[in-house]
Predict the structure.
Amino acid sequence: MKFLPESDNEDKLHEECGVFGVFLNDPERDAASMVFYGLLSLQHRGQESAGIATAKDKAIECRKGMGLAADVFSSGIIEQLKGSAAIGHVRYSTQGASTIENAQPFVSRFKLGSIAVAHNGTLTNADVVRELLEDAGIGFISSSDSEVIVNLIAKNYKKGLERALTDTIQFIKGSYALALLTGDALVGARDPNGIRPLCLGQMDGGWILASESCAIDAVGGVFVRDIEPGEVVIINREQVLSFSFSEKTRRAVCAFEYVYFARPDSVIDNVDVYGARIRAGEILGRESAVEADLVIGVPDSGVPAAIGYGRATGTSFGLGIVKSKYIGRTFISPNQIQREKAVSVKHNVIASEVRGKRVVIIDDSIVRGTTSRRLVAILKAAGAREVHIRVCSPPVKCPCYFGIDTPHRKDLISNGNSVEELCKSLGADSLAFISVEGLLEALDGQGGYCLGCFTGEYPMPVQSN
């Protein structure tokens, strides 16, 4: 039995980032403020850095910094960013350190013009492409694989925008949702498997690209459709041009978008995230019901599943656990004592709700097990008679290679441990995970999802760790 040490990082998987872009038909209007509000709506996808690039008179200007979007962009900075087209990015690092050099968007200025790129995802062949570009005399300022994309497009730009895009995205491998800005166009592109989400919206006098539909809603836009896997959309003042750059491939949308990453008010590839979480809870109740007095959800993503579980089993739903909205990710704290303090105050129990009761607690996933172990302990300390854990994703046994910050295989507590061993380690009275089949049913029952972190089967070849 493996017992894992308390991690410096929060006991969750983390998305790499979110992208947002706006193109306004009126050249006298400025797009930066709309991008800023779009980034605020995508802040859950990354909190380490934020950036905005704008295009005016074929020139691109960029501002970025470390921290939350609201901390990086004061009203004065937003007013300085002129231009009717803009892209923005919020980042959580998986490839490259958390430094200002790796903050996005990346901008390349060259003889034929300028381009800026905001990227969500991870390239599996970034090292190979970087080496080829360096051999061709192209320099890099960051360790991010996203800079590979902007430099590759710039290298091919003499062929024209469409050809440069096509040549670039046929050469790179992995996952990517791209928002790209030129002097006179906004471009969106999604990898051939559609692993990372990207959608198109429309607003009065313009167009929007966003990682999630909730960000389109936030700026008063109307969701139009998802960008299809392997599709490029080019938006300029004359038209919205769409073309496919790849052969028909197997759609493999990241299942964890629905389990945890995406906001519940988003719709991704025609699947309502909130509805999927409700259904996951209902299926959990059908697959692994237990006699209990109360079902609670781990805030925030476990709450809809807890509602669904309660509906399916007839168990009363309550809050039970409160999460502080003002505690940042624990690894940011400068030393271990402060990290542990931040962890201990992130969740607290409503003792009057759980005292003397048999409690089912619903979580979206178990990664290292540290959060689950702590929640069981504080629930029992508050007087819960029994604590049963139900998880609305299958056991996470394998790393992700496509833009999620997953621990190494050896640090995933479900890797090599049985459910019974894990239950004992967590101190719970029982433990059950939704089945892979149940998760697919909760989504749409049709398949077309990347389940690599659960099954070890990936939509493309990877180098395992």
Notes: The first strand starts at residue 14 and ends at 15. The radius of gyration is 22 Å. Confidence is low (pLDDT under 50) at residues 1-9, 329-336.
